[in-house]
Amino acid sequence: MGFLVPAFLAGLAAVVVPIVLHLRHRDKDTPHRFPSLMFVERLPIRTAQRRRITDWPLLLLRALAIVLLVLAFARPLWSRPGVTHASAGDRTVIVLLDRSMSMGHTGVWQRAVNEARNAIAGLSATDRVALVLFDEEAEIAQPLTTDRNLAIAALAKAKPGTAGTRYAAGLRAARQIATDARTGMAPVDVVLVTDMQRSGLAGLAGLDIPSTMRVRTVALSPTAPRANASVAVTEARPITSGGRERLAVTAHVTSRSTSAGRPMTAMLRLNGRPSGTRVITTNASGDTKVAFEPAALPAGLVRGEVTIDADSLAADDTARFTLTSNDEVRVLLVAPDDAERDETLYIERALAVGRAPSVRLQRVRPSAIDADELRDIALVLFWDSPLPNGSAGDALRAWTTRGGGLVQLAGRRLARRSTTAAILPASVASFADRSDDRGGSLGDVRIDHPLLQPFRETPAALVAPRFLRHARLEPANGGEIVARFDDGSAAIIERTEGTGRVIELGMPLDARAGDFPLQPAYLPFVRRLVLYATGRAATPLARATGETWLLPAAAREPVVSTPDGSIVRPARDSRATSVPLRTAGIYVLHDGETRGEPVAQLAVNTPPAESDLTAITEAELLAGVRRGDASTMTSEAPPAPADIERQQGLWRIVIGVLVALLILEMLMASRGWRAVANPITTLPSSGEGS
Amino acid sequence: MPTAPASFLDPALLARISDLALLARTVVDGFMHGQHRSMRKGSSTDFAQHRPYQPGDDLRRIDWRLLGRTDRFYMKEFEADTNASVIFALDSSASMDYGSRGVTKYDYGRFLIASLAWLSQAQGDRVGLATFTGDIVDVVPPSVRHLQLLLHTLGRSKATGAGSLATPVQRLAHMTSRAGITVLVTDCYESPEELGRCADALRMRGQDLIIFHVVDAAERDFPFTAAATFEDSESKTRIAVRPDDLRKRYLEQSRSHHAAVAKRLVASGADYVRVDTDQPLDRALHAYLDRRLARSRVR
Fold it and tell me: What is the ipTM of this complex?
């Protein structure tokens, strides 16, 4: 039995009120008129008798009512038998050790390990301890145990990583351990060993932890700001110089809290070979651009890295990037035999523009489609021509199912046909000639669709082109309308076939039937059409730890080798396969086995925010944490006293008993001899009587 | 002696009748039902009125003095003869204005006097009324024609103020010029000796005295249990008491007082009749009739 607000128990002193009132009861009564006190006056009456309590039942009832009222305000609660308080020897301690990249700062990690070891070693033999390592994710290195040696052994294996900091991940893991431990009302001590980096606050606001969880931080960073410099590669552009492919690399060195600018050397390596060196003087605080001389571009997959002079935090002194020297998308343009050359001029020119990836276009006749022709092809564009039937059609469908991109542009030729292939998302209902009303335009477009992603900021660019003649499409085979003309007919319809995408365009892409090729939206639309239909995206130079890598569809049995040497075989689902990027370095994707030529590779660097070593205080860290909210706790979680009191609601029962007592008191005081004696019943005077 | 149905005489029931005349007639009729009417009637010389002479009238009753003043013949007519003059004295002090069971002692006294007056009127007696507290308050001289005036005076009287018997009784004694009956209705909150002296004074004037001692049930039993402050109705004195502790001694005091009063009044030749307000009126009526009958026999 306990009380949520025991301070209210001081109100029990109010019990003296009814006692005093009962002692002084008669003095304040309305006097009882009596014909004559002639006989009473003759009797000796002791004062002591008058001052003593005469109505004990009523006094006890009133005193009990006051006691109950005080108890109700004190919010009583009853501890459950199953969650009794643990004894002093059953302490539960969870050590949260920050292993983010910033912990690799000179001397910090060793101090962190020592602090964690001291926290573990200071426990008694009956105390339970758990060790949680966290960066952007949390890992329970040692579940709760009374064997301190196990925890210390797990601590010895820990080392700082290359990921960012996320305090919320560590605290969530600690909350889960405390919940699973069923410690009940016993407090759980959380020792947070960290360098108190401000960048780790993300996700902490609004985090619920039980009120029994006491968080103590062991701050390792000095109060003074720590200087640090980091490097990031912002551009790696293949150029042709003197008839040779070269690579122009630009990097930025970011200095934080350095006292003054200092000279340092930046070195570029391509595929492990030094390819350039620059000596720079960094700014005291801010970015310094480093442009390397164009270096010879190796063939195939290229790994590059820019390294600056190592400082106290070496993990962010190297920036990696990857690119493919001959990164191109092969597109098959299938044009009808009667198509004139200038009819496809604009599309061919538009496809030729752009790098990373670049497009290699091959124009063929419809009859040339077969399985061999489709090999290494990423996109097939049917220019107002029907899909082939027979074995060519089957090969095309199988190729699409495996991830190929198929686009059919509907024009006047297709409008004359009535057949629709089962793979296509639409049929051509008619061909509209809108020359009389100065042509139509796109009206209703799904600007949030990935195909139209380049136009999210400028949707007006899509409605600017005028189309004098265009096909009217009808969705078929589950096709999804992406855009409509202003007359309501569908302009773009898509569907998926296996892992491939099939897109039907009703809008003409030539300059005869409209002015779309002359509009600014034409080039980004065509490039986006290629990338979206082929499932490709503009390949970034590098990603940061904590992100995921959406593997290209080219690998049918993806196998990824990670920077720490482990092999990951991600499960492929119907849409895409992704790999979490937990370690900085080069991730390499193979198809089937890790030997042989890799399919793709990806550079992963430390998150830029992790290089900012600005520290915060414990109060700032825990400012956004909410305590004792029962809604966030599982049914087995140890509830806070406030939650127990709220669930039990004993004060309601006490108030109910109090009301019953007051009713009983009212009845007792107004019935029976009490009512006769006080107040007095007087009869009307003689004049008002008979 | 046959008794009347109690329902006709229940004080609580009578308290619902606001008209004292009706009340008195109800009581007396109910009480007299079955009583034998054996009262003797005497003669009276009380002047009633004059009337013009008529041939054949008795010349002895011509008012010669009036003939001398007016030169006309008027006949003197007299009231019918009565046997006694009865004056009812009602204690109107504040102590009488107390009732614990539906009817106050004052109401009870008024019912009693109204009934007795009606009864006396029926017997041919002259009836008068005196109400008093520390002194005489209202007086209705005895007459065979004053019953309605008596009832009216009785109806509007109120019990208030401090009371004392000595002065009003002395004055009452001086007011009674001939022998008669004095009916004193009081709660006897006087010393027995003082009451005895009052009785002696009236007896010295040749009055037959009947004292009705009106007692409330609460005065008789002192049923209170809770501690409380009691206030004297007349002196306003307040005393905090615990009735449980005092009851026994109070009752002893009360009984001792009543016995002493009765003894002293009887010694003075008065009739002492104690009436409790929770008892029917017939006991008081019987006591009165017995006394009235005894007086008739003496004559």
Answer: 0.76
